[in-house]
Amino acid sequence: MSLRSRTTFASLIALLALPGALVAQGREVYKLPIPAAIGAETGRAQPGVTAASPIGFGPKSGDFFAGFGYQNSTRFGGGNDGSVSVGAGLGDPSKFGFEFVAVSASTVRSGFFDRMLGAAKVHRTLANGVGVAAGMEGVSLTGESSGDPSLYVVATKVQEIGTGANFNSVTWNAGLGTKRFAPASDAEQQGGVGLFASAAIKANATTSLIADYTGQDLNLGLSFAPFRDLPVTISPAIVDVLGRSKDVNGNTSGARMTLGIGFSYSGRKAAAAGAAAGEPGTARVLPPPDDDSDGVPNTVDACPNTAPGTPVDSRGCPLPPPDDDNDGVPNAVDTCPNTPRGTAVDSRGCPLPPPDDDKDGVPNASDVCPNTPAGTKVDSRGCPLPPPDADGDGVPDSADTCANTPSGTAVDVKGCPAIFSGAKSLVLKGVTFASGASTLLPASRPALDEVAKTLADNPSVKVEVGGHTDRTGSEPVNQRISLARANAVRAYLISKGVAADRITAKGYGSSKPIAPNNTPAGRAANRRVELSPVQ
Predict the structure, then answer these.
(1) Is residue 261 part of a domain?
(2) Is residue 184, in this structure, part of any structural domain at all?
(3) Is residue 309 part of a domain?
(4) CATH number at residue 8
(5) Residue 60 CB: number of other CB atoms within 10 A?
(6) Which residues contact 276 (CB under 8 A, 6 or more apart)?
(7) Closest Cα to residue 68, out of 238, 232, 240?
(8) Is the N or C terminus of the chain more exposed, i.e. has fewer CB atoms within 10 Å?
(9) Residue 222: its pLDDT value, please?
(10) Domain check: are 377 and 479 in the same one?
């Protein structure tokens, strides 16, 4: 082949890939069960996702497509030109599918089918909107050609970015290829190995915006599917935007306009809803594969093999179990349904107790005494309870040497009766005698025992035990009884270890009343035994 022929072929091969890719896009997404992830609503033609690079998705058995490509100029100003493509699919893409394409690289200028090129790829559709493929293109079928075929591997991922009608998905595409996919290194514009990549954002139901780096230069384009019920895709583009390629004379390529128009058809149809088996029916789309029957096609099912009957979200993953009060505990195990919104709950769905940092049983919000030591008993305000004081003398039981001190008795720091604390004498409360006699009753012993302990703790104190009566009876009798009772108390204290020389006894009869004698209460108060200090 002449140098001119090789250059013409090199210039055309990039162009031919463009309509082939555009035709493939029109075919791949129109009324076919592949790949729903690209955004093919059932029964709706869809825009393409690349301007010239191959993608990882492909057709199945029964799918056919055709297309026309046009450019206003070849890469280095050779005038306008065009191409015609036809192709078909074979196999099941969910396992392995095959695509075969034949392209007429010559049209009106040099005659249709003067130079024919072929392309083929094997592809597979995976879960989560991913497709992978490996293929060969630029295989000479007829006519003169010295260019070598290009090999490639490619992966395509459809990513959902929204749920609205506009700008709801991006299709990412990347691969490695030889020859036309590598930076140009000679007059045939075919390099060694290069990286190609593209991204297409679906602007709306009928339009995609495409940026496609072919490995040699950048293409920017649009793709339209303007007719709802007509399987046609229209894809204009500006190619060689960067002008990186050079011919043998060092001339760089310039940006050019291209146009691709594709038509697709699926031979696999099903009867329309309502048509009886074997009767003519309106052709409709076969549903995309959905192995776990959750209503989400395999191509976008992020959670394959979901158990039958499980409610799922748009990604095919199980919905969280119902939780009517939104407390994070499913209804099935929520012991306290209808918890007010925002309430902190435990694993049973019941409200957690209010915070109580010092664990005293009184919530922080009403704890007047925060940070109470652990184990301390507190009142309703969260403050420590006073220590137990069974006899109410003001000395805690733990430090009360004289428990059960009669109520009202003045005591010292040990809880024992205070000896003349702030007074000239001390009435011995709780000391009682048999009626009309000097015999101490047993009930008197606790009070006298405490007096004995107090005297033992104060060895320097000497006391007088004074007996007193009311005015009932004669004074001689009262004098005798009061002295006898004073001696009875003195004798008891001595028996408890108090030295005899520290205690004297004296009877005062009714001569020193402390209350009126005309009432029973007054007379009871006057019948008493007192301790008085002796200097």
Answers:
(1) yes
(2) yes
(3) no
(4) 2.40.160.40
(5) 25
(6) none
(7) 232
(8) C
(9) 92
(10) no
d(CA 170, CA 38): 8
Co-location of 203 and 239 in the same domain: yes
Q: Name the domain boundary from 266, 299, 334.
A: 266
Exposed/middle/buried for residue 457 (C-beta within 10 Å: 0-12, 13-18, 19+):
middle
Cross-strand pairs, 237: 221, 258
Q: 367 with 404, same domain?
A: no
Tally of domains within the chain = 3
How far is CA 363 from its chain centroid? 28
235 and 118 share one domain: yes
Residue 199, beta-bridge partner list: 172, 211
Res 12: pLDDT: 31
Report strand pairing: 150-160 vs 130-142: antiparallel
pLDDT mean values, one per 10 residues, the chain (535 residues): 31 34 33 32 64 89 86 70 86 92 74 80 90 91 75 92 83 92 61 88 90 90 85 88 72 80 69 36 58 87 89 89 89 90 88 86 88 86 85 81 74 70 76 88 91 86 92 91 94 94 94 92 91 83
Distance CA(258)–CA(251), nearest Å, equals 21
Q: What pTM does this model have?
A: 0.47
CA distance 450 to 493: 10
User: Are 381 and 427 found together in one domain?
Assistant: no
In order, the DSSP letters of 182-246 are S---STT--EEEEEEEEEEEE-SSSEEEEEEE-SSSEEEEEEE---SSS-EEEEEEEE-SS---B
Q: What are phi and psi of 333, to 5 degrees?
A: -120, 10
d(CA 291, CA 122) in angstroms, rounded, equals 22
**What does the pLDDT read at residue 457?**
83
Q: Which two tokens stand for residue 494?
A: 């001595």
CA angle 457, 458, 462 (to 5 degrees): 140
Question: What CA–CA distance (Å, rounded) separates 436 from 87?
Answer: 136
Q: What is the CATH number of the domain that holds 460?
A: 3.30.1330.60
123 vs 81, 158, 176, 304, 362, CA distance in Å? Answer: 30, 16, 15, 20, 69
Based on C-alpha coordinates, what's the Rg of the chain? 55
pLDDT value of position 359: 86
Say what the pLDDT of residue 205 is: 82
Q: Are residues 510 and 452 in the same domain?
A: yes
In a domain, 277, yes or no: no
Please report the pLDDT score of residue 76 as a whole number: 61
Are residues 365 and 494 located together in one domain of the fold? no
Closest CA relative to residue 97, chosen from 134, 130, 68: 134
C-alpha separations of 283 from 31, 215, 426 in Å: 10, 41, 118
Tell me the residue range of the domain where 375 lies: 358-387
Q: Same domain, yes or no, for 241 and 367?
A: no
